Amino acid sequence: MASFFDLRRLKLRIGEEFQDAVEIELEPIVLAGQRYVPVPEKVQAQLTVDQASSGKVFRLRFDAALYGPCFRCLADAEIVEHLDLSEYQAADPGNDEELATPYIADERLDLSAWARDGLVLALPEQILHKPDCAGLCPECGRDLNVEPHVHDEERLDPRWAGLSALKEQLEDAS
């Protein structure tokens, strides 16, 4: 269920500001096929609306925590983000997409969609359970954080067998 703020209740004059504490419902986010769950699902946020002569400036501030698998080893990872988002809506945007926020429809501000998009954009490139996560062994699949190891035998990709034979012939000939 999304969280909305009804803009019709605002009667701001130019230069006036409205502030309110709002509750935003966050939905799970799927990244790289993995599901990241916000805990708690409902977060407290600070909404500010400034009335400018040309339109409204919206600001949303909140903290969010996501839980899900580490990109490298699949251990439980937690990401905490402190967000400070802003959007602008011109009084008469016309067809200019830069002057209109996509989060307003029928005089309602979609706080959940705005918060979700801001959160996704703030996430690191890779979600890791710790910054120096070693990941999983590509040979045997064991967790290198728990059991660091190397494999002694070098496995040759069968597609390179012809070149290996040629290399051996050249080494024998010299």
Q: What do these coordinates show?
A:
Helices cover 14% and strands 37% of the residues. It starts with a strand and ends with a helix. The protein has helices at 111-122, 161-173; strands at 4-6, 17-25, 29-31, 34-38, 42-51, 55-69, 76-90, 104-105, 108-110. The chain folds into two domains: 4-122; 134-174, no CATH class. By secondary structure, the chain is mostly beta strands. The radius of gyration is 26 Å and the shape is elongated. A hairpin with a 2-residue loop joins strand 8 (104-105) and strand 9 (108-110). Strands 2, 3, 4, 5, 6 and 7 form a six-stranded antiparallel sheet that branches. It has two helices and nine strands, in the order E-E-E-E-E-E-E-E-E-H-H.
What's the structural blueprint in terms of helices and strands?
Blueprint: E1 4-6, E2 17-25, E3 29-31, E4 34-38, E5 42-51, E6 55-69, E7 76-90, E8 104-105, E9 108-110, H1 111-122, H2 161-173
Antiparallel strand pairs: 1-9, 2-5, 3-4, 4-6, 5-6, 6-7, 8-9
Distance from first to last alpha carbon: 74 Å
Structural class: mainly beta
Number of strands: 9
Mean pLDDT reading: 91
How many separate domains make up the residues?
2
Q: What count of helical segments does DSSP give?
A: 2
* C-alpha geometry: elongated
Low-confidence stretches: none
Offer a quick outline of the entry.
This protein is mainly beta. The protein has two helices and nine strands, in the order βββββββββαα. The chain folds into two domains: about 120 residues; about 40 residues, no CATH class.
